[in-house]
Amino acid sequence: MPKLVVNVDHIATIRQARLAREPDPVQAAFLAELGGAEGIIVHLREDRRHINDRDVELIGKTVQTNLHLEMAATEEMQSIALAREPYMVCLVPEKRQELTTEGGLNLVGQEQRFKEFLEPIQARGIHSSLFIDAEPHQIRAASEIGAEFIEIHTGHFADALREDERGVQLQRILEGITAAGELGLKVNLGHGLNYTNIKAFARVPSIREYSIGHSIVARASLTGLEQAVRDMVGIIRTFAD
Ligand code: PXP
């Protein structure tokens, strides 16, 4: 049975928009677990644009399931991972200008670098994952590097507007899942998955985890809005008493 692992970066994005104290991704992680999430993901970016070091520390200490740390393959992030010892580290490419992660890592030709980067992390018993596009040469490189997992980037599939293009992207992902399985890699999926497009994977075997953030936080902001307004109206009404 695949697991849902919830990314709480988007809660931190709302907090940082006002440089405020709420909403707190630590509390969001707790609620996501109450809802059935089997893991919590945070992406600690080099520029700390949403999740910060305090969030990683507190979520790591309070999570009841397990913490997945998404990060770039930099020395700073490696020492944070070794200090915090999350359940899993997922390496992602990172560009300062991007709105969100735009594509998978390019591992080809950099196998040795990634292997050496992951070695101390794996030696601590931390699970390792590489975020890549469903391209055969990237999947082979991930296997050579010795990662335990790959996370296949589903963003191109999710973003495709036309059905035929979506079909092409889906087929690419399905072939990637099969190829990865043949090489002994475990497969997670993530990016752009929502309440509609996730159904495409309903009958696909051997997917370990779905990594989902934006669509869940977007839905929560609407499904929770009516009650939030009701709560404020309730307080204001008490003023007349
Ligand atoms: N996986 C990776 C590697 C990501 O960078 C992100 C975005 O933070 C996600 C999954 C989750 O994507 P989304 O927020 O679109 O669900």
Give an overview in words.
The protein is α/β, with parallel strands linked by helices and 241 residues long. The chain has one domain (3-240): TIM Barrel. Helix content is 46%, strand content 17%. The protein has 10 helices and 8 strands. It has helices at 9-17, 25-34, 53-62, 75-84, 111-123, 136-145, 155-159, 163-182, 214-223, 225-238; strands at 3-7, 40-43, 67-71, 88-91, 127-132, 149-153, 186-190, 207-212. The chain has an 8-stranded parallel barrel, surrounded by 6 helices. Helix 3 (53-62) links the parallel strand 2 and strand 3. Helix 2 packs parallel to helix 3 and helix 5 (111-123) crosses helix 6 (136-145). The longest helix has 20 residues, at 163-182. The chain is globular. The mean pLDDT is 96. Pyridoxine-5'-phosphate (PXP) is lined by residues 7, 9, 43, 70, 90, 92, 100-101, 131, 151, 190-193, 211-215.
How would you sum up this structure in a few lines?
By secondary structure, this protein is of the alpha/beta class. The protein is built from ten helices and eight strands. The protein has one domain (3-240): TIM Barrel, CATH 3.20.20.
What's the shape? globular
Helix content: 40-55%
- Number of extended strands: 8
Q: Which strands sit side by side, in order, in the main sheet?
A: 1-2-3-4-5-6-7-8
Q: CA-to-CA gap between the ends?
A: 53 Å
Write the H/E string, N to C.
EHHEHEHEHEHEHHEEHH
CATH homologous superfamily placement: Aldolase class I
In terms of structural class, how would the helical and strand content be classed? alpha/beta
CATH topology heading:
TIM Barrel
What ligand species are in this complex? pyridoxine-5'-phosphate
Which percent band covers the strand fraction?
15-25%
Number of domains: 1
- CATH architecture identity: Alpha-Beta Barrel
Low-confidence sequence ranges: none
Over the alpha carbons, how many angstroms does the gyration radius reach?
Answer: 19 Å
Largest beta-sheet details: 8 strands, parallel, barrel
